[in-house]
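pinning this so it doesn't scroll away 📌
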Amino acid sequence: MLFFELLKALVLGIVEGLTEFAPVSSTGHMILVDDMWLKSTQFLGSESAFTFKVVIQLGSVFAAAWVFRHKYFEMLHIGKYAPEVQSGRRSKPRRLKITHILVGMIPAGILGVLFDDFIEKHLFSVPTVLIGLFLGAIYMIIADKFSRNVRNPIQVDEINYFQAFVIGLSQAIAMWPGFSRSGSTISTGVLMKMDHKSASDFTFMMAVPIMLAASGLSLVKNIGFIHLSHIPFYIIGFLAAFIFGLLSIKLFLTLIQRVKLLPFAIYRIVLVVVIAVVYYGIIK
């Protein structure tokens, strides 16, 4: 096993961790970094390389689950986060409940079951990802412009079931590769008059369970492609994605209320140009 191959696994894990929950499309970055540069299929094989990407995505998902663990505990009334009981009465419950998360998961869950194989076979190409990157950037710019006119934006604990469903519907739209799950759902939340931080919080809390289910299912389906000699790659990639996922999510949640979505949208458009130049050989 070559040192540089392990280094490639580390780099891919870092890229996944930094981009999975930022509204910049982890798929677009994987195309640029892996398909056009590191080429993990050359040392893992195509099936094992796909499984490797599932594993490192799980690293990012576990990072998000860890960041929001207290909020999940609150919604599930676990341990010290359960509502206090005083004089035989419960304290005022939080508005955001686990049922809001479940309602938001419905559209993507149904469409994922119906169209996952089709999307995987027919939409994972550079041209389709470029389209998703660009259209997602435009959507983010529209949402940012809309937010300037919103007074008294909705907080995450004030979300209702209709808003949760609409945001979940936009998560289903993000099944188009390159569109970005977080980019589309945060933008939709902002268009539903939520502030950027609250839209981000709900986006991440909603994404974790459905991504765990989707990645877990993919891992089970492809478990036979994991070879013993590849285990070190998987471990390094997973840990890198988890650690850098923690850093990325915390940094993003700190920045989003200050800088909004526009800088990320501009970055996406630049990424479209870079990928197009490399892929189509415009500059040789």
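📌 and the second one:
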Amino acid sequence: MKRFAQIAVLCTIGAPVLAQSDAAQANNPLADITAFNIQNYYFGEFTGPGDATGNQFVLRYAKPVTIGDSNWLIRASLPFNTLPVGAGGQEVSGIGDFDVFAAYQFDTGNPGVSFALGPQVVAPTASDDRLGADQWQLGLANVYFNATSPVFQYGYLLTYRTGVGDTNGRQRASLGAIQPFAFYQLGGGYYTGGAPIWTYDFATDSYAVPLGLRLGKVTKRGNTVYNFFVEPQYSVFTKGAGQPKWQIYMALNMQFQ
């Protein structure tokens, strides 16, 4: 975490002038650019008994590919979880389930508008069964991003996945999520906004609806655009035990032009 903070500081000092288009596209999950993201969620409190905390550290890689005349974005994520899922709410740490989706990018006729839809696969790679669903999952992912304005950008990421095949005695997964996002450019590479993830578990009828406020800084060094931000989030609606009451989302996202 100390090293992560040092990198963030370097991104905000002595940076060259940033083009408006770079700032507008820095948060676009469908940007036609190879990207690598280092993300972290610190969960300060969960619903239910006890005062447990948790953490999720995520490595994410995204790459645009061309298949014939079609354009796709492949995005893969691997989390490292520390969650209170042990006996008596004890923390358990380890790798979580590997998630990948392939999104077909439709030609919207407007370079500032991105829309994509494609399949999602979740592999049961968790190093401890309690840190994952312990079953294969298939689903769909839909992404929309509007960057027609250099000042205000918005969109969403919508996903649904369900367990397939053997569930190893576990309840079959059935999880939906929508991540609305909106960003306002403040100038000088700084921006504000938010990108909380609202989740609903169809199997247990539980959900969490957080809201957040982000402060971010986008800079460009050479051919790489760096996007560092911190976004505290608070859940305004929850149902069921184990939902985060509040969390701190921070990340360093890199786009390689």
